[in-house]
Amino acid sequence: MTIESPTFPPRREAIETFEPYATPDAFCDSLVRIERLGPCRRLVFAVTQHGHRDDGAIRAVVVKLVIPADLMAELAQAIVADDRSEFGGPVIRLSEHAVAH
Fold first, then answer.
1. Where are the alpha helices (DSSP H) in the chain?
2. Is residue 68 within 8 Å of residue 39, measured between CB atoms?
3. Rounded Cα distance, 56 and 50, in Å
4. Partners of 40 in the β-ladder
């Protein structure tokens, strides 16, 4: 499988942002894996559903977000800097096996 490298516009400080159509929100309660896609990473988020199986809950994937890998550090810093977490602890916790190779 060949994955072409996406091209991204150069970063500028004052780029206008708009929402051309209503983008739906998706509730997620877990980040289940991070996949490497060349210069990008795919973050796969899920929501836990209870009562679908006799042996407990299952996770349903609801969002796959692909972003440039070099944006990951900036994203992590923004999440950590957000002081509005009601629990006061780390926002994201991944197991050491969560990153797909």
1. 72-81
2. yes
3. 6
4. 37, 68
At residue 6's C-alpha, the angle toward residues 5 and 7, to 5°, is 120
Name which of 82, 16, 27, 80 is nearest 49 in CA terms: 27
Question: pLDDT digits over 11-67, tens only?
Answer: 656 778 788 888 888 899 999 999 999 999 999 999 988 876 667 788 899 999 999
Q: 2: buried, middle or exposed (CB in 10 Å: 19+, 13-18, 0-12)?
A: exposed
**Using CA atoms, how far apart are residues 60 and 17, in angstroms rounded to an integer?**
30
**Phi, psi torsion values for 97, nearest 5 degrees:** -100, 5
DSSP-assigned letter for residue 84: T
**pTM assigned to the model:** 0.61
Q: Which pLDDT belongs to residue 90?
A: 47
The reported pLDDT for the residue numbered 84 is 61
CA distance 21 to 6: 23
